[in-house]
Amino acid sequence: MDTENWYELKDTDQLVTPCLLVYPDRISKNIERMVEIAGTPSRLRPHIKTHKTAEIIQMQMDKGINQFKCATIAEAELLGNCKAPDVLLAMQPVGFNIVRLFNLIETFPETRFSALVDCMEIREQLEQEARKRHIKLGIYLDLNTGMNRTGIIPGNKALELYRSIWGSENLEAEGLHAYDGHIRNTDFEERRTVCKKAFEPVQKLKEDIEREGMSVKFIIAGGSPSFPVHALNEEVITSPGTTLLWDARYESLFPEMKMLTAAVLCSRVISRPAPNVICLDLGHKALAPEMPFPRVELLDIDNCRQISQSEEHLVLECSDPEQFQIGDVVYAIPMHICPTVAKYRQLITVSKGKVTGSWKVAARDHQLTI
């Protein structure tokens, strides 16, 4: 797959830049690699937050993947539209999103929806809504294993919360969910050691739950960095997301995963404002700006340093600016693909150097119809 200049288009005359190119053949290889690492599609519950795209969901379903994770009600609605059999809303619903979740369940009866809970307050609100609608909602207990972003710390309070879910008439205890996105050791053995250490409280909580006669049907753990570690534990359902498209940051950190870059930014040189400075049309509105520089890996460009970015512009300092002419096309791999995708209404599909069509980033907004 990794042939020289695989990303280049043969004709860019009609191409509007900046745009995001995707390569379906490489996405397909990444899905196959995910299944290879997990051992079977049944141990995969991929997150769709990276791509938010129906066509990529369908590609995964075509390869036997039937469980998905999502972060927003809009993404959950997209999965319902795609007739995905099993969908986990992997962000605890609060406020009106609780109503929207149950509206989803009623709108898409063929899809089984579940949700995360990490506190008694939301558990009670979900139970109240489920009782009112005569619905039984699957619930995963969201655990904080060190990232300190969401979740309840494994221990007595977590056990009490799980016990209350188990005893509910309108909530069904599905199991445990633990996201460890803070674990990003580049050395695989170090990552494995840290990941296993962080997982120990999850395992203990599972044993405490079972000791009381309750069951833990599933444990969903990890994201993309810890995916190959959790894949070694047959009790765990894995949930990578970035692996579908990959990006320059993860490629530099985790080359052993052998994923292929499947999304490339296409930009143009729009100005040469100073002797050693060029400017590309890759501003904040086209490229995720939260990373430190460099924010992209520039392809086939030498001796250039990314020095500033504003709404519409990415400025480079180059020791050899003569390599560029105004209007030249420049290809770049984002350091962080997930928020970059969300900046585009559509992904431009490419095969063998030619544009073949486009895919709508269907769940880009926070609300579709529900």
Automatic annotation (TrEMBL):
Pfam families reported for this sequence: Ala_racemase_N, D-ser_dehydrat
Biological process according to GO: D-serine catabolic process
Family: Belongs to the DSD1 family.
Keyword Ubl conjugation in annotation: no
Lineage, top ranks: Bacteria, Pseudomonadati, Bacteroidota, Flavobacteriia, Flavobacteriales
Gene Ontology terms for molecular function: D-serine ammonia-lyase activity
Domain named D-serine dehydratase-like: residues: 262-351
Protein name: D-TA family PLP-dependent enzyme
InterPro entries xref list: Ala_racemase_N, D-amino_acid_metab_enzyme, D-ser_dehydrat-like_dom, D-ser_dehydrat-like_sf, PLP-binding_barrel
Record's signal peptide: none
Keywords: Lyase
